[in-house]
């Protein structure tokens, strides 16, 4: 296995160090350190013109839950919790819908002949590689007032000429955007785990008079769990931190956490609060990752028993 | 190639259909499944079709179809701001791709081949960090970093930021290629007195080339399409194409945006198709 510079690099500590150093340095300096600075900033006092005073203050996190009234008393303010709730709710619903739409697709593709499978998987990934912004923009044309959905309804006389289905700038529009954006990320890992499944088990279940749906539930789904979990985490995590769907399809009043963060660094100019919201978002991302790792280990153990 | 090698190469690809007979496949058929899958594909492609169709719309209001016209492509191509934004995008994507792919190749040679060493999982974790952290968080962390340290390099800032998040995307296909590669040829080269450098240049690199190309394509598309990080990090003079398109969308929906978007879409799809050809396992 060890041969050439590839092998030499891998085996000698000095070679390993030299080859790994650029990657570690670039990501360390320009990603890890900025994240640390962001954490530090979230614990400082804001400066009116953007930037911060270098003074410790937990205010940014307090602001997430409380508001100061005229007498400088802290009053509970659920406004930002709503935004957190909306983000969790939309990301969760998008994940569920992606699973319901995506699992049958993976099941269908995996049972095609090899050359068709490759092509179908390629077709699933194409929309994913197109620009996020363009994808959201296309939905504006479809859902917007006088858009692709409104127009035929007008022609058919099902709706008055000035009426609109009014889906754009609602939570539904954000949800459609999220599902559309992340659906391929659900299909691909489920497909990968179904491909490794021994299909004879499904046949055996049928021979033992199991109905198709029962075999699906008790044989296929449990064996595909690692792929399902991977799909869930791959959809949920980026959907939770999504910015574009809510920005373009949700209008200006339906924020998700990502938009709240961005707002603090553009118009609101409150860096510590923006950094604090980013830290809160990161905590939820980390918690989902940890839950995923635990679940994966648990099912791995159960399957190997 | 002997038939035996071809067979063993083909075996993992045929998957389910090889192991299960026709009967098992038929058992897996559910009523309405084809319809469901067709619906999902329609959902995936409908917006793209609408986008492309409306870029040929004659009317200046994107949502109102009046007739076929290629006028908006002319407008988009003649738009100086769009052209300079596209040029910025190309410069940033090219520089970031070259740096990220080089860095990722070196890292992959170690991480795909070395046996367990101290710090290996930490190194793998660091490699995955740019994918794990939500993009908006990366964007503001980078913004804070650059502005706190007063780093103002114009496009340079963007190139650095793009390089960082392109590294894992370049890394994954290169590592996959290395893991599937046979070490015996390199061993043979060494046995025939090739120096480590010669065996790397003449054996490892040519074998690894499709993986490197695939990684570079992926990095290029990811950089070209990036919006959030560019929006936060770029200063006024270094707008990229997606950021420019965003500023146009805020002023309303016009077919010119569709024309620009369709062209960007065409570039991404061509690159991804190339990536697909490079990364497919050889028969």
In short:
The complex is a heterodimer of chains A (305) and B (283). By secondary structure, chain A is mainly alpha-helical.
CATH fold-level name of chain A? MetI-like fold
In spatial order, strands of the major sheet of chain A run: 1-2
Large-scale geometry of chain B? globular
In CATH, what is the homologous superfamily of chain B? MetI-like
Indicate the CATH class of chain B. Answer: Mainly Alpha
What sort of overall outline of chain A do the alpha carbons produce when their principal axes are compared? Answer: globular
Count of alpha and pi helical runs of chain A: 13
Main interface: chain pair and counts = A-B, 104 and 106 residues
Which percent band covers the strand fraction of chain B? Answer: under 5%
Low-confidence stretches of chain A: 1-5
Q: Compute the number of structural domains of chain A.
A: 1
Please describe what this structure looks like:
The complex is a heterodimer of chains A (about 300) and B (about 280). Chain A has helices at about 5-10, 15-40, 60-65, 80-110, 115-125, 130-145, 150-155, 170-195, 200-205, 210-240, 245-250, 255-265, 270-305; strands at about 45, 50-55, 65-70, 75. Chain A has about 300 residues and is mainly alpha-helical. Chain A has one domain (about 60-305): MetI-like (MetI-like fold, Orthogonal Bundle). The longest helix of chain A has about 35 residues, at about 270-305. Residues about 1-5 of chain A have low confidence and may be disordered. Chain B has helices at about 5-20, 20-25, 35-55, 70-80, 80-110, 120-130, 135-150, 155-180, 185-190, 195-225, 230-235, 240-250, 255-280. Residues about 1-15 of chain B have low confidence and may be disordered. At the A-B interface, helix 1, helix 2, helix 4, helix 5 and helix 6 of A face helix 1, helix 2, helix 3, helix 5 and helix 6 of B.
């Amino acid at each position: 296995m060890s041969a050439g510079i590839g092998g030499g690099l891998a085996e000698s500590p000095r070679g390993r160090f030299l080859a790994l150093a650029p990657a570690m340095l670039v990501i360390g300096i320009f990603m890890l350190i900025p994240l640390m600075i962001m954490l530090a900033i979230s614990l400082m006092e804001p400066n009116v013109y953007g930037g911060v005073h270098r003074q410790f203050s937990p205010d940014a996190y307090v602001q997430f839950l409380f508001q100061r009234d005229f007498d400088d008393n802290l009053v509970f303010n659920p406004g930002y919790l709503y935004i957190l709730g909306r983000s969790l709710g939309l990301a969760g619903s998008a994940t569920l819908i992606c699973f319901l739409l995506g699992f049958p697709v993976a099941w269908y593709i995996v049972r095609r002949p090899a050359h068709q499978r490759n092509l179908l998987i390629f077709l699933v990934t194409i929309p994913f590689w197109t620009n996020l912004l363009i994808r959201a923009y296309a939905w504006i044309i479809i859902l917007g007032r006088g858009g692709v959905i409104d127009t035929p309804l007008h022609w058919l006389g099902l709706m008055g000429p000035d009426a609109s289905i009014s889906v754009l700038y609602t939570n539904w529009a954000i949800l459609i955007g999220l599902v559309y954006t992340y659906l391929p990320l659900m299909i691909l890992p489920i497909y990968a785990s179904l491909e490794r499944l021994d299909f004879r088990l499904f046949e055996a279940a049928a021979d033992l008079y199991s109905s198709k749906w029962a075999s699906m539930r008790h044989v296929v789904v449990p064996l595909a769990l690692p792929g399902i979990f991977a799909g869930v985490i791959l959809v949920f995590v980026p959907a939770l931190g999504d910015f574009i769907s809510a920005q373009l399809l949700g209008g200006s009043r339906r924020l998700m956490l990502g938009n709240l963060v961005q707002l603090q660094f553009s118009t609101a100019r409150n860096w510590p609060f923006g950094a604090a919201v980013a830290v809160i978002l990161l905590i939820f991302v980390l918690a989902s990752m940890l839950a995923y790792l635990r679940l994966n280990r648990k099912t791995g153990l159960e399957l190997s028993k | 190639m002997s038939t035996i090698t071809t067979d063993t190469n083909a075996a993992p690809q045929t998957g389910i259909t090889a192991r299960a007979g026709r009967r098992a496949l038929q058992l897996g058929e559910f009523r309405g499944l084809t319809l469901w899958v067709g619906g999902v594909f329609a959902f995936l492609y409908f917006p793209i079709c609408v986008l492309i169709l409306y870029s040929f719309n004659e009317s200046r209001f994107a949502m109102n179809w009046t007739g076929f016209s290629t006028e908006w492509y002319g407008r988009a191509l003649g738009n100086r701001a769009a052209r300079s934004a596209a040029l910025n995008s190309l410069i940033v994507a090219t520089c970031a791709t070259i740096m990220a792919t080089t860095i990722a190749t070196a890292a992959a040679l170690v991480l795909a081949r070395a046996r367990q060493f101290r710090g290996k999982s930490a190194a793998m974790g660091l490699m995955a960090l740019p994918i794990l952290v939500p993009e908006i968080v990366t964007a503001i962390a980078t913004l804070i970093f650059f502005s706190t340290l007063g780093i103002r390099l114009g496009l340079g800032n963007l190139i650095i930021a793009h390089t960082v998040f392109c590294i894992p995307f370049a890394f994954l296909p290169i590592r996959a290629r290395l893991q599937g590669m046979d070490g015996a040829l390199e061993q043979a080269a060494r046995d025939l007195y090739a120096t480590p450098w010669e065996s790397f240049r003449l054996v490892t690199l040519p074998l690894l080339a499709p993986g490197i190309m695939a990684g570079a394509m992926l990095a290029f598309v990811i950089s070209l399409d990036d919006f959030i990080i560019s929006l936060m990090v770029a200063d006024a003079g270094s707008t990229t194409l997606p950021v420019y398109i965003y500023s146009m969308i805020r002023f309303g929906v016009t077919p010119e945006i569709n024309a620009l978007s369709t062209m960007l879409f065409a570039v991404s799809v061509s690159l991804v198709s190339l990536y697909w050809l490079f990364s497919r396992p050889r028969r």
